[in-house]
Design brief:
Elements lengths: L1 E9 L2 E10 L23 H66 L3 H27 L5 E5 L10 E5 L5 H10 L6 E3 L1 E2 L8 H7 L4 E2 L4 H6 L6 H11 L7 E4 L8 H6 L13 H10 L5 E8 L7 H6 L5 E10 L12 H33 L1
Parallel strand pairs: 3-10, 4-8, 4-9, 5-8, 6-7
Antiparallel strand pairs: 1-2, 9-10
Helix pairs in contact: 1-2, 1-4, 2-3, 6-8
Length: about 375
């Protein structure tokens, strides 16, 4: 009696194992006596026939399982592609529906430079901005796989003034901030580059929404044109003065650009998950409205399960988790000063901001590690 073990593999994966018993007495002994070597002719006992049927069944089962896996993979990718197209279309429609009234209101604000009209236009534009945030929230909630992990949201108030600083990882950050804070703090106002004000329609809409514009000069430019020194501060000051009349949240991505590993290496960032912070923007805002701000919101965003392409995954319905940590930092008197001309204040301010960024980097590391361990 002999035992045959047959193992079938498909793409490195075990499909089935077949064990057959062969009766040696069933081998035709006359074949041994032939002069020319020929293959043995085997008589198939009943057990061997039964084993062959089991083997065929195993092969069919393995092929069916593989086929079902391929079907699920194709369907998931097809569903992601359809979701991506629908999300882009719906986002564009929501943006058009809210931005067209804002642009029209901006034209009225431009033609009628009357404070009472400007206040009414600002209130209307904030309402349309809120509607846009609601539209984005509905699109996010259509994703059944998305889960939020939020800490620190309960201590916020829409009647206060806030300066919000945040790490910048993806275009998804703006959507997350708008959706998350729309009912908890005054409508977000983002620091924008002065050049954006001259972009048709977009610049007018941002101006109607009272977005603060910043005009920054490089060090080399100021060396060639020293007469322009301090004008960037004055531009920021004029942009922020309007916020004294009503509660406002000013948002500043202090890294100045979205984080990528290439940028981190180019800038020689000392952080693993962040780019070096640029302190000038928030220093100017605190210098202008320092006494007006109730708190500084130090917000940390992380997408632990979609770290590579969170915005694409958000549009395609594959974003599974958004982690937000909110820390309320007191705005102390020592944070107010002349960042441009006072070198000692500039050094102290940069040290304070770098300390916050070190803590934020460690926090992101801990978040990623906790979810990685939870998934194992």
């Amino acid at each position: 009696m002999m035992v045959f073990l047959s193992i079938w593999l498909t793409d490195g994966n075990l499909v089935y194992v077949d064990i057959s018993l062969i009766n040696l007495a069933s081998i035709d002994k006359s074949a041994v006596q032939r002069s020319k070597p020929t293959a043995y002719s085997l008589k198939a006992p009943f057990f061997c026939l039964f084993s062959d049927k089991i083997s065929a069944l195993h092969r069919m089962t393995g092929c069916t399982s593989l086929s079902n896996h391929l079907k699920k993979l194709i369907m998931s990718r097809l569903l992601a592609a359809i979701t991506l197209v629908l999300s882009i279309i719906l986002t564009i429609l929501v943006t058009i529906a809210c931005s067209v009234p804002i642009i029209l209101a901006g034209i009225i604000k431009l033609l009628l430079p009357v404070p009472r009209v400007w206040r009414a236009v600002s209130a209307f534009c904030n309402l349309m901005m809120y509607c846009w945030c609601e539209g984005l929230a509905i699109l996010l909630y259509l994703n059944p796989h998305l889960k939020w992990d939020i800490q620190g949201l309960e201590r916020l108030d829409k009647k206060n003034w806030y300066l919000l600083i945040c790490n910048h990882h993806s275009w998804a950050d703006i959507v997350v901030l708008c959706v998350l804070f729309r009912k908890h703090i005054p409508m977000n106002k983002y620091f924008l580059k002065q050049q954006l004000a001259w972009v048709p329609f977009i610049g007018l809409a941002c101006w109607a929404l009272d977005m603060p514009f910043m005009k920054r000069y490089s060090r080399s430019y100021l060396l060639r044109h020293p007469e322009h020194r301090g004008k960037d501060v004055e531009t920021t000051r004029r942009s922020c003065e309007k916020f004294r009349a009503h509660p406002t949240t000013i948002v500043n991505f202090v890294e100045g650009s979205r984080f990528t590993e290439e940028k981190r290496q180019q800038m020689r960032s000392p952080y693993k998950n962040l780019l070096p912070p640029k302190a000038a923007g928030i220093a100017m805002a605190l210098n202008v409205l320092g006494e007006q701000f109730d708190k500084l919101l130090n917000v940390t965003l992380c997408y632990p399960e979609n770290d590579k392409t969170p915005f694409y995954d958000m549009l395609s319905g594959k974003l599974t988790r958004i982690v937000v940590r909110i820390d309320l930092v007191p705005v102390e008197a020592e944070r107010h000063g002349d960042y441009v001309n006072d070198k000692n204040f500039k050094r102290r301010f940069q040290l304070w901001l770098n300390t916050l960024w070190n803590e934020k980097d460690e926090q992101i590391d801990n978040i990623k590690a906790s979810y990685k361990n939870a998934g194992q």
